[in-house]
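Hi there, hope your week has been kind to you so far. For a while now I've been wondering how a particular protein folds. I'm sending you its amino acid sequence along with the backbone structure tokens. Could you read through the record and tell me how the tokens relate to the sequence? Take your time with it, there's no hurry, and the full record follows here.
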Amino acid sequence: MLNFELNPLLEHVLSFASDISDINLSVGRPPQAEVNGLLCSVPTRGLTKLTPFQTEVIALHLIGRNRDLARRLHRTGSVDLSHAIPGKTRFRVNVFRQRGTYSIVLRVIPQWVPKLDDLHLPKELHAVPDLRNGLVLVTGPTGSGKSTTLAAMINEINHRHAYHIVTVEDPIEYLHSHALSTVNQREIGTDAKTFAEGLRAALRQAPKVLLVGEMRDVETVETAMEAAETGHLVLSTLHTTDAAKTIDRIVGFFPREEEESIRRRFAQSFRYVISQRLAKRDDVEGRIAVLEILKATQRTRDYVARGEGEGRSLIDAMNQAESGMQSFDRELERLVRAGILSRDVALSHSSNVNDLSLSLGDTDGDEEVSIGVGAATSTGTSKLPDWME
């Protein structure tokens, strides 16, 4: 095991299925592949159950001679990094300690950068690459496709406009080649110590577009809003479940006495809050992306600035079909009526289970809606390509 080569093992696991999203290497289990949200054991000679020694060797192999990563793993118990099988596949990797041993999860990243058309995202989102400034947030749980959506947006900007694009990521995932734009990608730990430091430095690098891998602290949020206010287009992610909670999270980064001013600033600087969830399809094998879209309008800016209350509901605003916005529960309802999702799955992903349950009643698949597998729907909800799941 000391002299083993990691890439042949990873290639063996990847050969198990065509739509693997993650590889999981944990003590007491064989190598596992996540397919359509479920872990599957991959029979591997000599690795029927990974030992603590074996996972530690794999972890050390991934970290290599990077002393900074090794120190971070020792100090914090986990570390993010990237790994590549040259010419084939790249991975976003997390190595972490659990019960005194090491586990490794590798997220599969395609070699090619997706296009917006490939993802069949709602037409409203095709306007994002032409924005001149402001803040665009893509939110959702881990594995919901946030990075893929952002990569497609950056790719579209890269091919539409002659801009300087700077990304700050942990780690770098999709590799962007220069097209009409010039794209510089910086990695936390290698090119910058923190997101906040990398973002501050980027503002001195004459960018038009900034991508920040994640909003993790008040300094990053403050700098991102400042950049959006001063003429930059800023794209980033948050681990929040919907638009309302995203705004609460942004405000929550700051002291309570600053809430009113932060709400006003965010209301003026944001352009879109896009939230994503993946749900298991009922009609065919696989998962489907359900999106909530909050767009900056006079009405939604007012609701964000003043806070939701009597007569000020972001859900009501998003449910106005002509606005280009959409809420999770209305999209889930449409998918159930179309026979794409089961009622139980829709309710499990709902923002308001009681309201959705009442809206659905006993109906399950009684309304015909033209939705093709792998094609955009009339409601802006789409089947994710296998590599995005």
